[in-house]
Specification:
Helix content: under 10%
Structural class: mainly beta
Number of helices: 3
Strand content: over 45%
CATH class: Mainly Beta
Order of helices and strands: HHEEHEEEEEEEEEEEEEEEEEEEEEE
CATH topology: Porin
């Protein structure tokens, strides 16, 4: 392997490590549901307006036909985002008893911040094999979150002490220019997922019960990039649904409820992730100015519930279990998500482009009884600024900043013990991002 190729592979792997390092980010840092939108710094700077229209190689995440936009030879990109979220839960009542009663006996009704800052990354590479044929590769974390309250025994702890969902997705792509201005592409997805849920059992200070499991799933991507004239680019991309069956353990930590011993049994849980369709436009208004737009649909209505199914004949905190029996069900009943964005960019100098954008995201969680406290999603507005600077003939650096305003939202959920808990969530997020693009 030549030194050049060693450097390229090392860069891709380093970016991949960042892509999997979703260490502790809250649901408020994410796109609708628990998707992760921070896959491209240049797109983020315009609130993802034009994200599938082939702005650069990172458009591959939404539209694999962008594999050819970087041009001839070997090209790589690494993107990194510092996500600083804030999400606070306030419980108003527990089984219709006002939270003030519990505060009087030392049980708080506020979670504290459930979200911590994290770095999210993504890497891309492409190579032109011939005049019309391109290959590419993306390494991303398309879905994920970690939520964990500062106060693990607050009044809502039965609905979630810890929620962790982690993914790493490898996406090789092949693109072909079928005619001048028209490129089509398809790709393969191999995705690893690991999930863990922990919650208080029976009452806020009860023992922790949890489920942890992991799985691989496989799918595809497809897209078309249409550039009918200079300055006009239209992209349509598709990411397929992925179905994971997380296999692992259901456990309860030792307590008086378990006779002082821990309970562990083999279990599994299905998690159905959405198809995503993205349509984007980039249109030049002058040689220096462009406007962009994006509409995206996410099939989150597939996420109806999360059911933990026993794989053993065993004792659980919920009673005796046999293979194939459902021991715990967390209802969701989500609806489809939508994302709309509009942005613009201006070439201040030949080597400097500035951009800005605004977006509105319709959450798949529309009702209080759909809002899982580990994933306290709601509608949101994105405001973003960004820029790109060509620092050498072969290297470009991107910067972006975003603030996300999430709607205050209410929840009304029933715990696995049958206790009805009501309250509200307040959240916001700041994102600072940096990327480097290299033409080898």
């Amino acid at each position: 392997m030549t030194l050049k190729w060693k450097s390229v592979v090392a860069g891709m792997l380093y970016g991949g490590v960042a892509a999997v390092a979703l260490a502790a980010t809250g649901a408020s840092a994410l796109a609708g549901g628990f998707a992760i939108r921070e896959q491209s710094v240049s797109s983020q700077g315009a609130s993802f307006a034009g994200s599938a229209a082939g702005r650069d190689l990172s458009s591959m995440f939404w539209n694999p036909a962008a594999v050819g936009v970087a041009g001839s030879g070997l090209n790589t990109e690494s993107h990194y985002s510092l996500v600083v979220p804030r999400a606070d839960i306030t419980v108003d009542s527990w089984n219709s008893i006002p939270s003030s009663f519990f505060q009087g006996v030392g049980i708080g009704n506020e979670s504290g911040n459930i979200a911590n800052s994290a770095i999210v990354g993504a890497s891309y590479g492409s190579y032109q094999l011939s005049e019309k044929l391109f290959v590419g590769f993306g390494l991303n974390s398309p879905f994920g979150l970690v939520t964990e309250p500062d106060n693990p025994t607050y009044l809502g702890a039965e609905l979630g002490r810890t929620t962790k969902i982690f993914t790493i997705n490898a996406n090789p792509v092949v693109g072909y220019k079928i005619a001048p201005g028209i490129t089509v592409a398809a790709g393969f997805q191999a995705q690893y997922a690991d999930g863990e849920l922990k919650f208080a059992t029976g009452f806020p200070g009860g023992p922790t019960t949890g489920f942890q499991g992991d799985d691989w799933a496989f799918g595809g991507t497809a897209g078309i990039l249409f550039q009918p004239s200079a300055g006009t680019s239209i992209g349509l991309g598709y990411r397929s649904r992925l179905n994971h069956t997380l296999e692992g353990d259901l456990y309860t930590k030792p307590s008086f409820l378990t006779g002082g011993v821990g309970l562990t049994s083999s279990a599994e849980a299905d998690i159905n992730l959405p198809d995503i369709v993205t349509l984007s436009l980039s249109q030049a208004l002058s040689p220096q100015m462009r406007i962009m737009g994006t509409v995206e649909w996410s099939n989150w209505s597939r996420f109806e519930q999360l059911t933990v199914v026993s794989q053993d004949t065993a004792a659980t905190i919920f009673g005796p279990a046999t293979p194939g029996s459902a021991v715990a069900t967390i209802p969701a009943g989500w609806q489809d998500g939508w994302f709309f964005s509009l942005g613009g960019e201006y070439d201040v100098m030949p080597n400097l482009t500035m951009r800005a954008g605004v977006a509105y995201e319709v959450s798949p969680v529309r009702e209080a009884n759909q809002r899982i406290l580990g994933i306290p999603d709601s509608d949101r507005v994105w405001l973003s600024l960004g820029g790109s600077m060509k620092v050498t003939e072969s290297t470009t650096v991107d910067l972006a900043y975003t603030h996300i305003f999430l709607d205050d939202a209410e929840f009304a959920r029933t715990s696995l013990a049958g206790n009805v808990i009501n309250g509200s969530v307040e959240a916001s997020t700041d994102i600072i991002s940096l990327s480097m693009k290299t033409k080898w």
